[in-house]
Amino acid sequence: MKDKNRLQDSIDLVENIIHQVSTQYTIIDNDRLKEDGSSYKVLVEYKYKIITLGAFTMGEIVNCTDPNRETATKYQTYIKTCVQQDIQNLIATQ
User: Is the pLDDT confidence value at 5 over 60?
Assistant: First the structure.
């Protein structure tokens, strides 16, 4: 990654999106994004267990701060939707 500041800005933005979504569910106690090679896992604490909801590639995360606003918005919406669906699926299956 050439621009480490952009990567960090993107990670910060995605962490914020994840947190905004997870705080809508009182049953989720904690959330975080964890680097796993070239991807990042979305982890939540649910019923005193750490659960991996899914993962996003570095490209998906970096695209959240794409200079093209349309591209950035598309990827931000994608990540928000994925996290919402993953949390809903987690709750429904537990």
Answer: yes
**β-bridge partners, 41:** 34, 55
Q: How far apart are CA 55 and CA 47, in angstroms?
A: 21
- Over residues 66-75, the pLDDT tens digits come to 999 999 999 9
**Domain parsing of the chain, residue ranges:** 4-89
Nearest to 33 by CA among 74, 82, 70, 69: 82
Handedness of CA 59, 65, 68, 71 (dihedral sign): positive
Token digits for 70?
Answer: 């349309």
Cβ atoms of 8 and 16 closer than 8 Å: no
Other C-beta atoms lying within 10 Å of the C-beta of residue 53: 20
Give the Cβ contact number of residue 42 at 10 Å.
25
- The span from the CA of 16 to the CA of 91, in Å, is 21
